[in-house]
Design brief:
By secondary structure, the protein is an alpha+beta fold. The protein has 3 helices and 10 strands; from the N terminus they run αβαββββββββαβ.
């Protein structure tokens, strides 16, 4: 099975695991996914993640430790914005605010993967990967 959108697959795995109240979820590893998880961890949407070796296939797997507050997931909604068939870009002046600042957008900029708040502070625009609230 080939996955045409590995970032969309990662977001779906996180969404499904949180709906089922799982403490963690395993995701196939890549540098780009690590950068996205770093941004989610900086903004407090996940507890942490570990890089583990898969025993059967010898590939690296990211084990994402999900975050809950009083039994309910911190991530209420996670939505892919820029897709492989349609890329969405934005200047830093017109970066969208998610739930009036309660949520974040993950932006791929020339300085790496940043949250919308970090991108605004550094005056950087880029590709809007996803919205998280």
């Amino acid at each position: 099975m080939t996955i045409s959108d590995p970032i969309g697959d990662m977001l779906t795995r996180i969404r499904n695991a949180q709906q089922k109240q799982h403490p963690s979820v395993s995701i196939p590893s890549s540098k780009f996914k690590k950068f996205i998880l770093d941004a989610l961890q900086r903004e407090g949407f996940i507890s942490s993640y570990d890089v583990e070796k898969n025993k059967e296939s010898n590939f690296e797997v990211l084990k994402v430790h999900l975050k809950y507050v009083h039994g309910s997931p911190v991530i209420r909604e996670i939505k892919r914005i820029s897709k492989p068939g349609r890329r969405i870009y934005s200047r830093f002046e017109s970066l969208p605010r998610v739930l009036n600042g309660l949520g974040i957008s993950i932006i791929s900029t020339s300085k790496g993967i940043l949250s919308d708040n970090e991108a605004r502070d550094q005056k950087l625009g880029g590709e809007i990967l996803c919205n998280i609230s």
